[in-house]
Specification:
This protein has 171 residues and is of the alpha+beta class. Helices cover 25% and strands 13% of the residues.
């Protein structure tokens, strides 16, 4: 009788630990950015054809080619600061799992050329609504969508004074 109770207790602990492992795997998968396309359960990377860059969903980082190498950063490079992430097309890379999606950059660049648009996409969350004056000038201030939570990250942008009017920029 004791053996049966111990076996049941062991089975219960085994099931509980397996459930806990499943939960931790799901927690580690990154949350898509608000501007990311909705309807994809498990994705790791987007390819952004218009700017020939990638977005790593798990690490919340853009990956682009600059200075002769592939760079990972939480912000887009200066030349794409005004790029509209909500309206730009995102190719969800379902077939790649690793740390270097740019291994297939030549293939991605040809298949998903600049200006490429597949099926219509809706964002993961709606575009934030700002006050009337801000909304009217939204096209010029679009970097708020991806800058507001990482203004503190200036490692790759030492001379960046773009956000000083927000009171958080470094001089």
């Amino acid at each position: 009788m004791k053996t049966i109770k111990i076996a049941i207790a062991g089975l219960f602990l085994l099931v509980a630990s397996a459930t806990q492992a499943q939960v931790s795997v799901n927690v580690n998968i990154g949350t898509p950015p608000a501007w990311g396309p909705s309807g994809y359960a498990e994705m790791e990377y987007y390819y952004l054809p218009d700017i020939e860059a990638y977005y790593d969903v798990r690490a919340s980082q853009f990956i682009y080619f600059g200075g002769g190498r592939w760079v990972r950063t939480t912000r887009l490079p200066r030349q794409y600061r005004n790029y509209d992430l909500y309206n730009g097309y995102k190719v969800v890379l379902n077939d790649y799992h690793g740390r270097t999606p740019y291994t297939y950059f030549d293939r991605h660049r040809v298949t998903y050329y600049k200006g490429y648009h597949g099926a219509q996409q809706r964002p993961y969350r709606p575009r934030p609504v700002y006050g009337y004056n801000e909304h009217r000038n939204y096209k010029h201030n679009d970097n708020r969508n991806h800058d507001k939570h990482d203004r503190h990250d200036r490692d790759d942008h030492h001379n960046d004074h773009h956000d000083d009017h927000h009171g958080h920029g470094r001089r």
